[in-house]
């Protein structure tokens, strides 16, 4: 789950106000044993408003009979929903529709059986809406009125003329390539997808291309060489954006975020392929973008890090390092 929220948990100790009991009966009382296993269910970290899911509980079992019942609660519905009695049929799955308001919500699943302490599983997630200025606000889009609709999948991108080029202001989310952040397709239109270089070089629509390192240098209005760090440039590239009301670029006491370049960079992070899975790194800390510049088995990317006012460069594997993509008009 993303770290855009800072949660303050207050605990008050009251044990000194409660006197210990000396009754023998209390000492002999024992709690019921727990059901076997670990209860789990799966829901993405990000879901769309009004989206419907069927959640299937797994992992809990009754060591005596094998039978368990299931119930569900959520942070936005007042009633508990029992989907299976202990001796009933079915798998206890729960079909639920997400709220229509964006925000952070939670769901709890409970497995129960007579004579046993129930098992619970809890998941928190974000309900999002890809409409501009709903989930993410102050992203800097629509500074120019021009938009481009990708004819391949209908995705809309906001455009800005800057650094001598026409740039897409939001990250590419072409469905045929790349992976979704946290395996959550709901945020593709908001975050864009993360691509290997081999995908990125062919992902832009006709009439657009992956920018070169020189294009990024021109964007900053400097004369830096290929791959050189561009000092003092990050603030002009960053959007002072908020995700569900929480500031995305934080801990910048010495950097003024102006977005003067109209680039509107968001801290989406990057990913590394690990076999059939992906390791997601740097959400709320890094904005990372591929360039078209190659170097053998690697390619050059440009990135911003949360506590430095610089545009850095580094090299990543063409095959398993994943970054965001911006497209530039031919």
Strand fraction band? 25-35%
Low-confidence stretches: 1-27
Our count of domains comes out at 2
Determine the fraction of residues in helical runs and give it as a percent range. under 10%
Tally the helices: what do you get?
5
The major pleated sheet works out as:
5 strands, mixed
Distance between the termini: 37 Å
Shape: elongated
Strand order of the largest sheet: 2-9-8-5-6
- Structural class per helix/strand content? mainly beta
Kindly state the mean pLDDT as a whole number?
90
| SSE arrangement, N to C | HEEEEEEEEEEEEEHHEHEHEEEEEEEEE
Radius of gyration: 25 Å
Number of strands: 24
Quaternary state of this entry equals: single chain
Task: Tell me what the structure shows.
There is one protein chain. This protein is mainly beta. It folds into 2 domains: 31-128, Immunoglobulin-like, CATH 2.60.40.730; 136-329, no CATH class. The protein is 8% helix and 35% strand. The chain contains 5 helices and 24 strands. The protein has helices spanning 24-28, 188-191, 197-200, 213-220, 234-237; strands at residues 36-40, 46-48, 52-55, 58-61, 69-74, 81-84, 94-97, 103-112, 119-128, 136-137, 147-149, 156-162, 165-168, 208-209, 230-231, 242-243, 246-247, 270-274, 277-281, 286-295, 298-305, 310-317, 321-322, 328-329. The strands form 8 sheets. Strands 2-9-8-5-6 form a 5-stranded mixed sheet, with no helix packed on it. Strands 15-22-21-20 form a 4-stranded antiparallel sheet. It has a 3-stranded antiparallel sheet with strand order 10-16-17, with no helix packed on it. Strand 5 and strand 6 (81-84) form a beta hairpin. The longest helix is centred in the middle third of the chain and has 8 residues, at 213-220. The chain starts with 23 loop residues before the first helix and ends with a strand. The model is unreliable at 1-27 (pLDDT under 50).
